[in-house]
């Protein structure tokens, strides 16, 4: 759903800190590309450098097929 707020859970894979992207895999075989910006909030001590392999919650909105993250935090 483009433009609306979405919350997704999954494991961060293929983190590219230079391009600020990663793949969010839900464990069911579905995956979305996510992107962060300078204004993205990283919670629970998470940083782009520690993102890979973590199970996370991502809040943001879709622009096309890319989830533009506004908040990324470890899954509670």
Task: Please describe what this structure looks like.
- The protein is mainly β.
- It is 0% helix and 55% strand.
- It has strands at residues 5-16, 21-25, 31-35, 41-42, 55-63, 66-74.
- A hairpin with a 5-residue loop joins β2 (21-25) and β3.
Topology:
Elements lengths: L4 E12 L4 E5 L5 E5 L5 E2 L12 E9 L2 E9 L2
Parallel strand pairs: 3-6, 4-6
Antiparallel strand pairs: 1-2, 1-5, 2-3, 5-6
Brief account:
The protein is mainly beta and 76 residues long. The protein has no helices and 6 strands.
- Determine the strand fraction and express it as a percent band: over 45%
Q: Can you count the beta strands?
A: 6
Oligomeric state: single chain
Largest sheet: 5 strands, mixed, barrel
Low-confidence parts lasting 5 or more residues at pLDDT below 50?
none
Mean pLDDT comes to 93
- Secondary-structure-based class equals mainly beta
User: Can you count the helices?
Assistant: 0
Could you give the order of strands across the largest sheet? 1-2-3-6-5
H/E order of the elements?
A: EEEEEE
Give the CA-CA distance, first to last residue. Answer: 25 Å
Overall body shape: globular
Q: Provide the gyration radius in Å.
A: 11 Å
Helix content: under 10%
